[in-house]
Design brief:
The chain is of the alpha+beta class. It has a single domain, classed as Nucleoside Triphosphate Pyrophosphohydrolase (Alpha-Beta Complex), CATH 3.90.79.10. It is about 25% helix and about 35% strand. The chain contains four helices and eleven strands, in the order H-E-E-E-E-H-E-E-E-E-H-E-E-E-H. The strands form two sheets. Strands 1, 2, 3, 4, 5, 6, 7 and 8 form an eight-stranded mixed beta sheet that branches. The chain has a three-stranded antiparallel beta sheet with strand order 9-10-11. A hairpin with a 2-residue loop joins strand 1 and strand 2. The two termini are about 15 Å apart. About 35% of the residues are buried.
């Protein structure tokens, strides 16, 4: 059995055996968005694929985020939203993603979104096609760093405002805010259960 299959099987089993925490919205007071947490296997390690947003997008300009976006009325499901947006933003074909499960909902602080995160496996060395209006570049971050190097109370200045947030600093990029909180949730759910490199039990 390959390491890549091992890690996918563990994530699918762990997420499948728990009920994700959802944020109620009975009065439809929030915007809703779905994101995909794309995992891939390269250089004998699992990695997380993230995007650096351009300054031309409506929300979260210049931030590091997962591919995803607002739920449209025509979307069949929250999973469909995440896959549709990933295809639109980074050219990731729906048929190339193996969905593994769902994490807990996350609320954005400023833009008033409830984010519904989904985890999926993506083929290695994928040829992404970026939507230049929305995505400046792709980041491929070793998954193990989120388990070992995340800071819980990072002080970060963004556009003149100082935030204290969970964060991971990677090659000068700061992964913070809702993206970091989603990965903190991923770590909390899977810590001690996930083989982060070949040979781990």
């Amino acid at each position: 059995m390959s390491y890549e299959k091992d890690i996918a099987d563990v994530i699918r089993e762990v997420l499948g055996n728990r009920q994700p925490v959802t944020i109620p919205d009975p009065e439809d007071a929030y915007n809703h968005a779905s994101v995909l947490i794309p995992l891939t296997f390269e250089n004998d390690r699992s990695h997380v694929i993230l995007t650096k947003r351009t300054d031309r997008v409506e929300h979260h300009k210049g931030q590091i985020s997962f591919p995803g976006g607002r739920v449209d009325d025509g979307d069949e499901s929250l999973e469909h939203t995440a896959l549709r947006e990933a295809e639109e933003e980074i050219g990731l074909a729906k048929g190339d993603v193996i969905l593994l499960g769902r994490l807990d909902d996350t609320l954005t602080i400023v833009s008033n979104f409830i984010i519904h995160p989904f985890v999926g496996m993506v083929p290695p060395n994928y040829h992404f096609k970026l939507c230049e209006a929305e995505v400046e570049r792709i980041l491929v971050v070793p998954l193990e760093l989120f388990f070992s190097n995340m800071q819980d109370n990072y002080s970060f200045n963004f556009q003149g405002i100082t935030y204290r947030t969970p964060a991971l600093v990677y090659h000068g990029d700061v992964i913070w805010g809702a993206t970091a909180r989603i990965m903190k949730n991923f770590v909390a759910i899977l810590n001690g259960k996930l083989p982060l490199k070949p040979g781990d039990k």
